[in-house]
């Protein structure tokens, strides 16, 4: 996969700073996200990947300059960013467990003509499960709901935080497949710890350490550099794959997420006044 560095980036981040509880968690972070493909945001645990995503989407206070397709967005609150076409798929999926799959998706519809056909094509399993309570889905299926919600709308960019976390290897591959197809329709900034997934999907990589950008460049070149990946990620891609195969984690359980930030961010992503209109029901979802 190649990046398109000559075209204007869809996201241009310059001097982004954010603090949580007095701690500087994002420090003078600058990078760009090309207008197509997947850009991976990488780094060891706790280096500020999630905080960077949350700062970009306005869930934590930030300073600095952020442009979306050439327009300043760094002063916008979360709801406005969502309306301007910044899709957000949070780390913990944040589905509404007591609502059905179809209801979760309907809640997320923002556009006059949500892209239900695309979602039904990408996630046939969700069509089959449209009447199932989302809280009874597996972790992988909940991840599909979370991705589907963002893909229903015509976004300019998606911010996706650790979509394969805690999933069994087979489900990781399914999520990667869905991300690959999604990336054909919208540029993505992806936080991802699974380096095989990064290798498969990412064009560019931005690497953080201690809240700062310590490397940017082609993702494959980065992953192929054993010294650099060991230094910046603490592991080399091939060693990581062997460890994962040995470990074979069990799929995450069907827990519904309920933190206050989770609730507010999910609701912010779902301001659909027309969503309850039964006349707009699609054939599947
Ligand atoms: N709610 C919070 N309260 C206090 N400190 C926090 C909070 N959230 C994050 N931090 C701190 O901010 C720093 C960056 O955390 P962040 O979650 O952004 O890192 P990360 O790179 O996404 O980590 P991981 O890969 O483990 O998800 C860490 O030191 C973390 O302990």
TrEMBL record:
Region annotated Disordered, chain positions: 262-285
A Pfam family of the record is ABC_tran
ABC transporter domain span: 11-235
InterPro entries xrefs: AAA+_ATPase (IPR003593), ABC_transporter-like_ATP-bd (IPR003439), ABC_transporter-like_CS (IPR017871), BCAA_Transport_ATP-bd_LivF (IPR052156), P-loop_NTPase (IPR027417)
Q: Which domain of life is it from?
A: Bacteria
Record keywords, A-Z: Amino-acid transport, ATP-binding, Nucleotide-binding, Transport
Q: Name one GO molecular function term.
A: ATP binding
Q: Which family does it belong to?
A: Belongs to the ABC transporter superfamily.
Stated name of the protein: ABC transporter ATP-binding protein
Q: What is the lineage of its organism?
A: Bacteria, Bacillati, Actinomycetota, Actinomycetes, Micrococcales
């Amino acid at each position: 996969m190649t990046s398109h560095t000559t075209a204007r980036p869809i996201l241009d981040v310059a001097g982004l700073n954010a603090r949580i509880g007095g701690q500087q968690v994002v420090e003078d972070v600058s990078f760009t996200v090309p207008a197509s493909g997947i850009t991976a945001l990488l780094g060891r645990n706790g280096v500020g990947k999630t905080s960077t995503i949350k700062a970009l989407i306005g869930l934590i206070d930030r300073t600095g300059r952020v442009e979306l397709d050439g327009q300043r967005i760094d002063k916008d609150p979360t709801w406005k960013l969502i309306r301007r076409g910044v899709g957000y798929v949070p780390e913990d999926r944040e589905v509404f467990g007591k609502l059905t799959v179809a209801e979760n998706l309907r809640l997320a519809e923002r556009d006059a003509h949500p892209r239900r056909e695309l979602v039904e094509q990408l996630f046939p399993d969700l069509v089959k499960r449209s009447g199932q309570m989302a809280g009874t889905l597996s972790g992988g299926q909940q991840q599909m709901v979370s991705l589907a919600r963002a893909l229903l709308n015509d976004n300019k960019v998606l911010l996706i935080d650790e979509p394969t976390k805690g999933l069994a290897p087979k489900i990781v591959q399914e999520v990667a497949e869905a991300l690959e197809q999604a990336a054909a329709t919208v540029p993505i900034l992806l936080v991802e710890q699974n380096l095989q997934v990064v290798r498969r999907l990412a064009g560019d990589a931005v690497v953080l350490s201690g809240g700062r950008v310590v490397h940017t460049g082609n993702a494959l070149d980065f992953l192929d550099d054993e010294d650099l990946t060991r230094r910046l990620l603490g592991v080399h891609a091939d060693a990581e794959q062997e460890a994962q195969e040995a470990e074979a984690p069990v799929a995450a359980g069907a827990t519904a997420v309920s933190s206050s930030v989770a609730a507010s961010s999910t609701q912010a992503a779902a301001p659909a006044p027309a969503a309850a209109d039964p006349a707009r029901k699609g054939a599947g979802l």
